[in-house]
Structures are given as structure tokens and as C-alpha cells.
Amino acid sequence: MHQNDGVSFTSSSSLKIPLPSSLLSPSQTLASQLAGTCHLAFQLIDSLRIRSNYVKDHSTPSCTVSTQSVLGSGSNVTASPLFCSASLSLASEKHGTGRSPSPLLNSASWSLTQQDSTELTHDGHLATAGRVKEERVLVSEVLIRNKDGEELERKELEMEALTALKACGANSALTTREVQEDVDRIIDSGYFSSCTPVAVDSRDDIKLVFQVEPNQDFHALVCEGANVLPSKFLEDAFRDRHGKVINLKRLDEVISSINGWYMDRGLFGLVSGVDIVPGGIIRLKVSEAEVNDISVRFLDRKTVEPTKGKTKPDTILRQLTTKKGQVYSMLQGKRDVDTVSTMGLGNVSILPQPAGDGKVDLIMNVVERPTGRFSAGAGISSGITSDPLSGLFGSFAYSERNFLGKNQKLNVSLEKGQIDSTFRINYTDPWIEGNDKRTSRTVTLQNSRTSGTLVHGSQQDNSSLSIGRVTAGVEFSRPLRPKWSGTAGLFFQRAGARDEKGNPIIKDFYGSPLTASGKPYDNMLLAKLESIYTGSGNKGSSMFAMNVEQGLPVMPDWLYFNRVNARASKGVKLGPARLLLRLSGGHVVGNFPPHEAFAIGGTNSVRGYKEGAVGSGRSYVVGTSEVSLKLLGPVQGVIFADYGHDLWSGPNVPGNPAGARNKRGSGYGYGIGVRMDSPFGLLRLEYAFSDRFSKRLHFALGQPK
Predict the structure, then answer these.
(1) pLDDT tens, 574-591?
(2) Residue 71 to residue 145: CA distance in whole angstroms
(3) If you ran DSSP here, which 8-state letter would residue 331 be given?
(4) Residue whose C-alpha is closest to residue 327's, from 262, 392, 250
(5) What is the DSSP string of 96-121?
(6) Pair 595, 561: CB distance under 8 Å
(7) Quick check: 50 pLDDT over 50?
(8) Which residues contact 462 (CB under 8 A, 6 or more apart)?
């Protein structure tokens, strides 16, 4: 954001601006206010010396002094004993009467005392001795005049001063304290830089005159040091004040609003200087704490003392959105801490330290925890069409979340069941070095064996077949725009069917081919593109994903096909319940193996059917609607309905495996279920009915796909 180094509402030449009175030292504040009124104080002191000498020579209770009337005419006045001694002082916030005026406002005080003896000290102050007794004096009239004793040119300023008075009025008996309080009130109105109370005592009455000095008219504003404060904010704050008398109270409110603007945004900034210079120019100086340096400090988990860390500092620093030279924001710092915390390195905090010249150093404290671990678990495969318990498998894995100290992920896992088995090695770099788009890279090597019954079903001779795949590839992912991400990858895959003994086979019991090439294995090079919209990321929020895979015939016998798959979901809140709608569909063209056809039916498709029992085709569409309601604690109840169709594409699959097994190609199911959040994920237990009057119990882990 551009620096506001010349905000002005006139065509005057360039102006400047520094320090609010709230930040000035008392001596500096007094000096600026005292300059215009000190000569009045000395005149009054000289007058009091004459009056004091007169009192010493005349023991009468009143004194007559020949002096200059504040109205400009010479006269002999008979002063009341109450007015025989007076001292004028200017008090800053620290030297006030116990009140808390605005930091920008200084108050002038008029103290009147009756004294037994008075002497002028070497520093020009009056010293009094004896017993002080406050008396009331009847004032016949109260006037507002300028410092020369003349009427104010602007009657509205006179009204402001009169309105500020509380105790002083015509025909009122006043004490010195009441006069002092009204002086403070005139100053606190914000329109005047000084106020001097003067008592004019004639033979008939006493008049109280407040000699005030109005502030200058506002003509221009200059602001220094505001690099992030919008110019429009300053323009809006001062636009309606142009050509009017500067009101220090209003100016103090504007300064508070500027400081509030920084505070609301978590920025380290404030108005550090204010000055009003001749010509009605307000000079503001804003201090913004720029980030001077950012460093990482590793702390020992036990002693909390600095230690050597495993993670490379650059790996952490590149995650930060806070950069050197920008104004430090506490909100941005908190987001940076959250970002680094998601890396899983340990506990993270940020500590600002003053660096001089109004700058700040940021120290990111990191308490690392072990990032490598072994784990074991169990699960249920969704591809088992017989007894669900036969789909149980166990898993064992080792993961390292900070490989080579660069926050890279290395996972080695093994899953083994009665039918399914998978061995996988994943290496992920969540942010490729030198890339400014936060692109990640994942390298995968996998050897898997899964049930082939999704498409080919159980064999008539009660034998089973499995699909073996060896896959190796790399994919790149990056954010595309808010809530959108994209993935591109290239994979080589070799896939084929095997019987129960692990021997390669090319046809099933019905004589349908199991490979596209007619060989025991199909080779394919797949180019993958995927785009995902995640909405808010909460459960039941909107989601859309589209995946495209293209088989590249690099070699003559490698498969050539194109597959498109899309899925979407939308959650809608219905009072205490939530409606979730899901829709998925896909299509494949070209030469592809039958086991890659879209299978319809099962736990994550059409419930009430076995896995793949509705049909399998080149195309498909599946729709689901669910209404869930929280029952007790983490337990939810759900009512659901599913429908799936192969869009009459089953016969187009090589060998027509769906037709050979009398699959209808369409069907629906409905039912009820309960779900519960657990340390293992979402537990789902659902009881469903199909349109073919069959009943089936489904159990699964994780969100429906």
C-alpha cells in the first residue's frame, strides 16, 4: 500500500507531521502551550506584587490598585481580599487536578487565595504562608474575550466556551476551585489552546472575564510513516473539518480511531506524534513496526533451552506469509503459527522482539517432537461380496513426517487380508524447493492384489480370482485458486488376473476375457488430471471433483483409452437435521481391461446390494440422498436412499461380464443406519433393503465416497 506522505485538502505546499501530546514529555507539552500565555502570567505576577506591597502598607481588608483593565481602559479598581493574590499555572495531564483530560488537552488553572504573607520565589512562582481560607465572591457578569480582552470574532466559539461553564454565571458566588474547574472545562471543550481567568473589580460589581485563545483553523494534514493505513481513511476522518477551528478533543478521537484501525487488524502501529504548526497544518507521525528479521529457534522439550533442531530453518521460514520489511500483523503471525503447526513438527510459537528504529524481530520457537513412528491397524475391504468378515485385513506401516529435515513425508505400508493385499511406498515433498506456487510432488510405488468379484463376480465352481497390479508413478498437486486444487500425474501400471493359486489367467469361468490385450498382463501408461473443489471443508459441505485418465500407447501393445469420472456432493441444513445429496458418474472409451469397468452396487454405491451386483459398464451414474440427525454424543442416526444405473453400457464391456451374470444394470436401495466418530474414523453400520426384496447389513470405516 502506498505511503501516505502527503494527504492534504488544500493546494498548499508540502507539509509534514510528528507526535501526539499523549506521547510528549510533560515539559514539551507545557512549553508548547505556555508560549502563548506566559506574558500574561508575568503581567499578573507583577500586578500581584504591587497588590502584595499595597496590602503590607495598608492593613485594610481591601486594597486599591491602579492597573490596566482587561478591557483596555485604565481605572482604579478596589479589589476584594479574595483577589489580592493570584497565581496562574498551566497543568499537563500529570499536573492536573486529579481529572483525566484528553492527552491532547492541557488545562489552565487559576488559583486565588487569601494569604497572610506572599513572596515571589527566584523561579517566578508565588509562595504563600499561613492559613488558607476559601471564600466566595459574588460575580455580577461572566464574559468571554480573546487574549487581548476583545470580543471573539466567531460567536460560535464564544457560545462553546459559555456552554462549557457549569459553575460560573451571572450573579453567582464563586470560589477559586469552581473557577478553576470551569477553566478546565473550557480547555476540555477542545477549541482553545489557553484560558486565563481575570477578575475586574469596580466600585459597583465584579466581572469575571475568561480570556481564551482559540486554536487555528484546519487547512491541511500531512501524515508520515503510514505505509499500510489507507489514504481514504484519513480523508474521511478529516474531510468535514476543513476550514473549521481545530478541536483537540475531536483530534484525539481521530487518533484513537487510527490506533483502533491498526488494532482491529492486529497490526503493530499507532500514532506516535502530533503537532499543529502555523497555517492550520496538522502533522501526524505514525509509527509502524516493520519486520526487521525472522529467525527460527529450536527449544529442548525437557529443559526448554535452545538446542539444535532436526528441521532445516528454511523449510519453516518458507511457510510464513510474514516477510521482512512489512508491518507486523499479529493475526498474520497467528496464521503462520497455525500453518507451521500443520507440518506436524511439534509445538510452535512466535515471539516479537524490539529491534530498534521502530522495527521488530520475530523469533519462531519450535519444540520438535519425534516425527517417525510405526503403526498397526485393521480394516474391512469394500470389494468383498461374500461374508464381510472375510474382507478383514491387518496393516503395518512406518511413516516419517520430516524426512531429511525438509518436512518431506516417507510412508512404507503393508496391508494383508484373506484376499486383498497391498504393499506401498509413498514419498511426498509438500512444497517443491524453488517453486512459488506451493506445488507438491508425490512418488508412488505399489504392488497390490484385490478381489476381482466387483466385475466378474463369484465363479460357478466357487473359485475366486484376484486382480494384481504393479504401479509406479509421480504426481504434482498445487492450489489453483481459493478452495480449488489441481493434480497432474503420470503412472505406469501392469495389471492381470490370477486364480486362487496365484497363477495368471486370461479368461473367467464364463469364457469372458480378463485382459484387453489377450495376454496374461496388460501394460498401460496413464496420464492423470484431476481438479477438486472443497467448499468450506466441513462435513456435509459442497464438494466437486473431476478426474480424467488417458492411456498413452507409447508401445504398440500398451492400452489406449480415456476415462472420465466426476462426483459432487451438497449438504443442506434442515433444522436439527442435515440433508446430504451425492451424485457421481463416469464414462470410458477405447481399449481397456474389463476389470476397469465401473462397478455399481455395494457399501459406497447402491446399498442393499452386494459389491458390484447391480451392474458394470462403460458408463454409470449413482445418486444418493441422506438425512442425518444427531442422537447422543458422537452417535448419529441416518435415513438413506440410493439409485444406480449403467446407462445401458454393460454389453459394451469386453466379454459382457455383467450380462453373463444376469446383472440388471440398474437398481435402488434404502434403509437406516447409525454412525459414530471414533479414533479409527467414522464407524458406519447400515441396514438396507433393495428393490429386489433383499436385505443386507453394511459395515464400513470412513465417509461414504
Answers:
(1) 999 999 999 999 999 999
(2) 9
(3) H
(4) 262
(5) SSS----TT--EEEEEE---SEEEE-
(6) no
(7) no
(8) none
Q: How far apart, in whole angstroms, are the C-alpha atoms of residue 149 and residue 630? A: 80
Residues 206-227 have a mean pLDDT of: 93
Nearest-CA neighbor of 515 among 631, 602, 596? 596
Lookup result for grid cell 466441513: 538
Q: What do you get for the CA distance between the two ends of the chain, in Å?
A: 45
State how far the Cα of 566 lies from the Cα of 167, in Å rounded to an integer: 81
Amino acid at 599: A
Assess whether pLDDT exceeds 80 at residue 172: yes
pLDDT in tens, 131-153: 456 788 899 999 999 999 899 98
Q: 232-240: which pairs have CB atoms within 8 A and are 24 or more residues apart?
A: 233/258, 233/261, 234/4, 234/7, 234/258, 235/7, 235/9, 238/9, 238/282, 239/9
* The pLDDT of residue 458: 64
**In this structure, which amino acid lies at residue 157?**
L
Give the pLDDT of residue 392.
76
Q: Categorize the per-residue pLDDT at 417 as very low, low, confident or very high, splitting at 50, 70 and 90.
A: confident
Question: Three cell numbers at 162?
Answer: 459559555
Contacts of 88 (CB under 8 A, 6+ apart): 37, 40, 41, 44, 45, 108, 109, 110, 196
At residue 124, the pLDDT reads 36
Return d(Cα 548, Cα 527) in angstroms, integer.
Answer: 8
Maximum Cα interatomic distance, the chain, rounded to a whole number of Å = 140
State the DSSP H helix or E strand holding residue 704, giving kind and residue range, or none if neither.
none
Dihedral Cα 234, 235, 238, 240, nearest 10 deg: -150
Residue with cell 474414523: 681
Mean pLDDT across the chain: 81
Residue 352 forms beta bridges with which residues?
Answer: 362
- pLDDT tier, 383 (very low <50, low <70, confident <90, very high otherwise): low
pLDDT at 387: 56
DSSP 554: S
- Strand-pairing partners, residue 118, are 128
- Can you give 165-202 as a three-state secondary structure string? CCCCCCCEEECHHHHHHHHHHHHHCCCEEEEEEEEEEC
- Phi, psi (degrees; rounded to nearest 5) at 159: -65, -35
How far apart (Å, rounded) are the C-alpha atoms in residues 248 and 189?
Answer: 8
* Among 201, 207, 204, 215, residue whose Cα is nearest residue 160: 215
Give, as one character, the DSSP assignment of residue 247: -
Cβ atoms 327, 228 nearer than 8 A: yes
188: left (phi over 0), alpha (psi -120 to 50) or beta: alpha
The pLDDT of residue 180 is above 60: yes
Query: In the sheet where 269-277 sits, what is the strand order?
Result: 220-224, 281-288, 269-277
pLDDT at 223 over 50: yes
Contact present, 137 and 114 (Cβ < 8 Å): no
Q: Are 284 and 7 in contact (CB under 8 A)?
A: no
